[in-house]
Amino acid sequence: MSANRCPNSKCEYFNRVLPNNAKVCPMCGTPLGNAIAPKSSTPPNTSSPPKVVNQTDYPASINPPSYQSSSVPYVEQPPPPLPPPSPPAYPPPAAPSAYPPSATPSAYPSSATPSAYPPPSSPRPVLRLMHSSGREFRFFREDGYIGRRSQMSGRIPEIDLFGIPNEGVVSRAHARIYWDANQNAYIIIDNSRNGTYLNGNFLASGVPYRLSNGDLLQLGQNNLVTFTVSVIF
Length: 233
Hints:
Elements: E1 4-5, E2 17-18, E3 126-131, E4 136-139, E5 143-147, E6 159-160, E7 175-180, E8 185-190, E9 196-198, E10 201-202, E11 208-211, E12 216-219, E13 225-232
Parallel strand pairs: 5-6
Antiparallel strand pairs: 1-2, 3-4, 3-13, 5-7, 7-8, 8-11, 9-10, 9-12, 12-13
């Protein structure tokens, strides 16, 4: 006995088994009948897949088709030949001189006369003054003064006796000392208030006196500041 089924294909109960006593579909209200699931109208594909033909399947009398590229291959062209080098443009030869070379010797012969300039003089020696306390002072300039520095003006003499015992008897610019190339000796000129003595002899102010090795130089009175003179060549 066939079961009741809903024949409405759009209903959720389509082709579903319903109770035998049901007359209509409880979902869509369609009268029930013996519905059968629809079959596809498309016949099944019974054809076999196409056979792949290999190159070896062709008979010996038939050659397989050949595939050639339609593009033309690029062939590199050789460079064009270089032009032949042009000959160098040498300047035309110079015309010979119209004046023959002179055979007259030079009118300015080399002079064999020795130079008239005298040789440079020897450097000045060093004047050394050894103080009685053992302190040494050196003078090697061409011109200068012996004295003690000034705290007010800031002037410092070339031979500064600042700091020696009894420096108060020494003037700021006590005496001038300079090198005399003609006498080849150092010269001293007194310029002080307390006087200058050389080997115990008083030096007149403004008068030059020559200093020699072993001289005893005294600045001021009472032998408070004394030096032994040395000239080092």
